[in-house]
Design a protein that fits this description.
With 103 residues, this protein is mostly beta strands. The protein contains one helix and eight strands; from the N terminus they run ββαββββββ. This is DUF223 domain-containing protein.
């Protein structure tokens, strides 16, 4: 159980699933507002392994204890274009996150 967050990228019509566990839900609830633009720091990217996927993207953004989330009003500098990795169950797996940085 927990909170499902969908990260929307309107420019490339992409959605990435985010998850906040029930134990951390109360900590993040004040920062979550419908249709807000947020910046997340210190999160974990994992392969989405559940058979109950709500989107087609193969990766999941997981909120962990050091994760910080705050609303961004005007200083959005980029967006996630893609996330690639071969086997995220291994500690030494390389993950490539492509970002589009706005000038």
């Amino acid at each position: 159980m927990g909170i499902t967050v969908l990260f929307l990228d309107e420019k490339v019509n992409s959605v990435i699933h985010g998850f906040i566990s029930a134990g951390r839900a109360n900590h993040y609830m004040p920062s979550l507002k419908v249709s807000s633009i947020v910046k997340d720091d210190r999160f974990e990217v994992a392969r989405w392994s559940s058979m109950y996927k709500i989107i087609d993207h193969s990766f999941l953004i997981r909120f962990i204890s050091p994760t910080i989330i705050y609303e961004v009003i005007t200083d959005v500098v980029g967006q996630i274009q893609s996330v690639q990795g071969s086997d995220l169950s291994k500690e030494t797996t390389r993950v490539v996150i492509r970002l589009l940085i706005d000038p």
